[in-house]
What we know:
This protein is α+β, with helices and mostly antiparallel strands. Helices cover 32% and strands 18% of the residues. It has 4 helices and 4 strands, in the order H-H-E-E-H-H-E-E. It has a 4-stranded antiparallel β-sheet, covered by helices on one side. Strand 1 and strand 2 form a beta hairpin. Helix 2 packs antiparallel against helix 4. The longest helix has 22 residues. The mean pLDDT is 79.
Amino acid sequence: xxxxxxxxxxxxxxxxxxxxxxxxxxxxxxxxxxxxxxxxxxxxxxxxxxxxxxxxxxxxxxxxxxxxxxxxxxxxxxxxxxxxxxxxxxxxxxxxxxxxxxxxxxxxxxxxxxxxxxxxxxxxxxxxxxxxxxxxx
Length: 137
């Protein structure tokens, strides 16, 4: 997270906070569900700053997921009742939560998952001041 904050140093505060909040949620999911909080497992994070966007790529070692299997998450019940997942989590003996994907998706411009669900791109479009853009030669 420190690296990501440094990368975002020239981004307006509100945009930086939104991007970091989304990245934090995705990283927590990757560490918990993909790596099972096993310190020997690696969660890969790559950051790219382009002329128009800030992009984070996160890949975890897990088997991935399908969104339709997330009945215990707020993102699955949004259309009819955004809190319906709470009862499902209680039934399954899960801790309170389930808002991470909804939060991440609402704070970045694009949240794109790989087909199996263990890789994600977080994209936030930014209007960089032209004098601050540094291109590699």
